[in-house]
Amino acid sequence: MIKYTIQRVLFMLLTLFVIIGMCFILIRLLPPPPVSPDDIHYEIIEARREAMGYNKPLLVQFGLFLKAVFTEWDWGISDKLYVGQDVFDLFIGKMPATVIVNLYSILFSIPIGILLGIFAALKKNTWIDYAISTLTMVVISVPSFVYAFLIQYVFSFKLGWLPFVMKAGTDYFTWEMFKSMLPAVMALSFGVIAGFTRTTRAELTEVLTSEFMLLARTKGLTRTQATVRHALKNCMVVILPSIFGQFVGIMSGSLIIEKIFSIPGVGQLYINSINAPDYPLFILNTAFYTAISLVAAIIVDISYGFIDPRIRMGSKK
Known about the structure:
CATH superfamily of the domain at 93-274: MetI-like
CATH class of the domain at 93-274: Mainly Alpha
Largest sheet: none
Strand content: under 5%
Order of helices and strands: HHHHHHHHHHHH
CATH architecture of the domain at 93-274: Orthogonal Bundle
Radius of gyration: 24 Å
Structural class: mainly alpha
Number of helices: 12
Number of strands: 0
Helix content: over 70%
CATH topology of the domain at 93-274: MetI-like fold
């Protein structure tokens, strides 16, 4: 496991380096956003671009960029959206909104998804199972932004129960702020609930038909006891890594959902950096989203070995 983990981490770093390098070079091939001489930050931006070697060969520019990141953790300054401000400070300031909205979504979605999956598996080949399975496939097939518009139409426009967009401010743990987050939380939750429902039902259905479950029943355990003590424990080998992956991914947020509900998070910052365009912000966000995806994949893979000692990742035997 240790050897496998080290290999995965090294491959992750290599992948991250290649993706950042490709994005950096492709962006620097484009002309930098123009800055008016009348802008009060004109001299700062020009001096910064000179220091980062905008007039030098691309590989030299990339080397200067890597040196600034690794020696000073300096990702540059915004030259379009937040002119003159440090992009990493801007990024950190946007993180709490993204994390809190996605954390609410996960805490709401995982229990419901697992319970629906268990219920569907226990009612296999009944109308309840067919209804849950069909609804799950429909929900998974529909993009999250469709739910966002439906929620806004029904709960915000027609019923007037919820606001259209997230409340401004940083009072994240007040009732007013939580209420304003609910539409985004609901829109993010549908897909997660459906995913866990499908996974749980598939795994539990297979386990319930295993021979060891028949043996457990013949020893006098009721169906409920056998399911809770044995079947669910075996299902967790697949379900728990998915939960770990979801929790790692809470920082990534949702680009479209954050834009629709005006969530001041990193997702909306990413979209704005593309539209501006703001190249330093774009590079930092790209590195972040790539790193989160790679770390989540590694944690999911490694967690299999810790959950079930019989699994040895990377073993040739």
